Amino acid sequence: MVISTEPEAGDWAALERETGLQQLAPASSPYWAYREDYDAGTHTPAQYWARVLGTAVSAEQLRVLEDLDAVQWSHLNADTMAVLETLSGEGAQLALLSNMPAGMSARYLREAAWPARFAHTFFSGPLGMIKPDRRIFAHVLDKLGAAPADVVFIDDNVRNIEAARALGLHTVHFNPGTDLRQELARFREGSNRRDG
């Protein structure tokens, strides 16, 4: 929830109507209980939703559920997008690492404009591993050809922040009150002092 905002109440309500379940948003709900397996690519969409609902789903219901799920995570954070636009214009090397099922990531890459802000995109589903697994960070660093100390990692999940920090990455723990411009300026100033 750095690029996107939290799903809105209407998004959860639509998903609850379709599933016949209530209170899907809380962390204790079946939506979240199996999400890490789904994000890690060990569950297909049909397997994930069958576990959420407790019964097999038809092809048509699966299509609707996948559409609703994609929509609820597509509300962009305008402040973050403005920072990305600035950084992109300055020539920053931007990379995205997201826990996301393969189908959803493919949909966004195909249909959304925001992935174009990034020179590199890494999604957990196709990779078969998720944050905070240190292997996914190692994979990204290897593909970027970057040392941990040269990377600023921004995430809303403290477990992911702790894992990245343990590997030597600079980190920003993002929350709704975070001023990304200010945080990134602080890292830039520190880098300039070291280089100077």
From TrEMBL:
Family annotation (Pfam families): Hydrolase (PF00702)
Signal peptide: none
Domain of life: Bacteria
InterPro entries linked: HAD-like_sf (IPR036412), HAD-SF_hydro_IA (IPR006439), HAD_sf (IPR023214)
Protein name, as recorded: HAD family phosphatase
